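[Q] Does anyone have a clean structure-token version of this?
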Amino acid sequence: MIRFFFFLFLSVPVFSFAQNMDAELNSQQNKDWYNAAFRPYEDSVEYYADKMKAPQTPLERKATLDNYNHQLSVFRAALKDFVQQHASEDIAAKALIITCFRNVDVNSDSLLAIAGSLKDDGEHNRYADYFFQEMQARKNDATGKMFIPFSMTDEAGNIISSENFKGKYVLVLFWASWCIPCRAEIPQLSAAYHQLKNKNFDVLAVSMDTNKDNWLQAVRHDKTDWHNLFDGKAWNDDVARNYAVHVIPKNLLVDTSGKIIARNISALGLIKLLDK
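[A] Here you go.
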């Protein structure tokens, strides 16, 4: 898998939600205030998370888990206090965004509950907009959800709409020319596609590239004849934003009714599910 790093300590998507969002979040000032506010709490949570991976007796494991949950609750309380204290400032939403991509397991429900304190300018700013969209996007790719339609151009410049594929099983594949794991899995996925394409199956391969020439070169090199799509917006295109695409390769399998039925399915998984 490929992830993107704005911070030395933070995995976060390279969206152009704001032109200089990445540079801004990567500033030493932002690193300093976030670490000063939350790093001690994170260290405690991570200490017990690591400890749980070590061999332990049942009693030791229970104690470790209790300590982990306690430290996690302390972290959540610290975040909640920070957001409440700065509820009318954009720094509160910025803290929530950063927390979304930390290693500490603060779930979406907890983050949304804390975000309920935002008000006035603290609720209406680009960081808050980004945060709330991220929270919604994380829900969108749950199995059983209806896939949100999108349109994008193919190699010939034709506009391809996902809605035109209703009645088929469709694999929506997120990849990029520079992504080594993406390219490594393409031969197996391509073989599965050719085995299944006459059985009501298709592939929409959405590129996270920004350089069209690099994308076209990769498509030609890999000899993929499914629907290769590109708009140059990469992580900021509508479908990537709607599905919180921060790590690639990623895929969503959509059934004939337009419902998501699998995430990150393998080529073998596709064949087992659809080759009937």
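[Q] Thanks! Anything notable?
[A] Confidence is low (pLDDT under 50) at residues 1-20.
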